[in-house]
Design a protein that fits this description.
GO terms for molecular function: isomerase activity. Its main location: other. Keywords: Acetylation, Fatty acid metabolism, Isomerase, Lipid metabolism, Peroxisome. There is one protein chain. The protein is α/β, with parallel strands linked by helices. The protein folds into two domains: 206 residues, 2-enoyl-CoA Hydratase, Chain A, domain 1; 47 residues, Lyase 2-enoyl-coa Hydratase, Chain  A, domain 2 (Orthogonal Bundle). Helix content is 46%, strand content 14%. A six-stranded mixed sheet has the order 1-2-3-4-6-9, with helices on both faces. Strands 5-7-8 form a three-stranded mixed sheet. α1 links the parallel β2 and β3. α1 packs parallel to α3 and α9 packs antiparallel against α10.
């Protein structure tokens, strides 16, 4: 598949998705919001992609939302009955939220490698990833506050589950920059690299470690971690038991034991493809 906003390359079972509009600071235009969830679904559909790495090009990771998205009268009418305008805007925001939730909903881990500025809507996006990595010059900012609006597509909902509440509130109220080292100290990013080349090398190495594991075990980890984040420990343990009762089979474990015995790398089957209902 080809996209206007992304370049996609494959490195074995790793899919590398790069934001590809550096001349526009990778602003999240209308095409971005349509293409991102489609790209995620396309990559998981074959069952051959086991990890997705998202990075960017140019000076900054992304300048965030392209304000033209909200100034398009076809999607966001600026005149007419106030109630109908409000109902329409609510649906638009829900659709934008669903776009970024695609990173959580795909069954494979999504790792994000950030350089330069990760601003506004771009921060909403990386909050939905499984793990974040950045360069020493990277920074993150809830820019919407400075623009006179409340961030509305995920940062305020996800970031408090990734960092201390007090810091998140400070970032939201002030709109200040969260620099790379502070982000690492707070646990928002896993690792800070000196430059983009070193970062991509490091993140791809982590992705390779993930891809070498049983994809069934990895997708189970993602499912359980996402569920546990949003539910009580008791509910999560019950769901874990149900998942294990249905999904656990000794097939992959036996491959692991055999590989260890022969000091080799286990070769696991891909997950079954994701197909439309009743597709041949």
């Amino acid at each position: 598949m080809s996209y206007q906003c992304f370049n996609v390359t494959h490195h074995g079972a790793i899919a590398h998705v790069q934001l590809s509009r550096p001349e526009a600071l990778n602003a999240m235009n209308a095409a971005f919001w349509l293409e991102l969830p489609q790209c995620m679904r396309d990559l998981e559909a074959s069952g051959q992609t086991r990890v997705i790495v998202i990075s960017s090009t140019g000076k900054h990771f992304s300048a965030g939302m392209d304000l033209a998205v909200f100034s398009n009268p076809k999607s966001v009418p600026m005149a007419g009955d106030p109630g109908r305008m409000a109902e329409n805007l609510r649906r638009v925001v829900l659709q934008l939220q669903d776009t970024l939730s695609a990173l959580e909903e795909v069954r494979v881990p999504v790792l994000v490698a950030v350089h330069g500025g990760c601003i506004g809507g771009a921060l909403d996006m990386v909050c939905a990833a499984d793990s974040r990595y950045c360069t020493a010059d990277a920074y993150f900012t809830i820019k919407e506050t400075e623009l006179g609006m409340t961030a509305d597509v995920g940062t305020l909902q996800r970031l408090p589950k990734l960092m201390p509440q007090g810091v998140v509130r400070e970032l939201a109220y002030t709109g200040r920059k969260l620099e790379a080292e502070e982000a690492k100290a707070l646990g928002f990013v896993n690792q800070v690299y000196p430059n983009q080349e070193a970062m991509l090398e490091g993140v791809m190495a982590i992705a390779a470690q993930i891809a070498a594991n049983s994809p069934l075990a990895v997708t189970g980890c993602k499912e359980m971690l996402n569920y546990s984040r949003d539910h009580s420990v008791a509910d999560s343990l019950k769901y874990m038991a149900t998942w294990q009762a249905g999904m656990f089979r000794p097939h992959d474990m036996m491959k692991t034991f055999q590989a260890k015995a022969t000091k080799s790398q286990a070769q696991f089957d891909d997950l079954f493809p994701v197909k439309p209902l009743f597709a041949e």
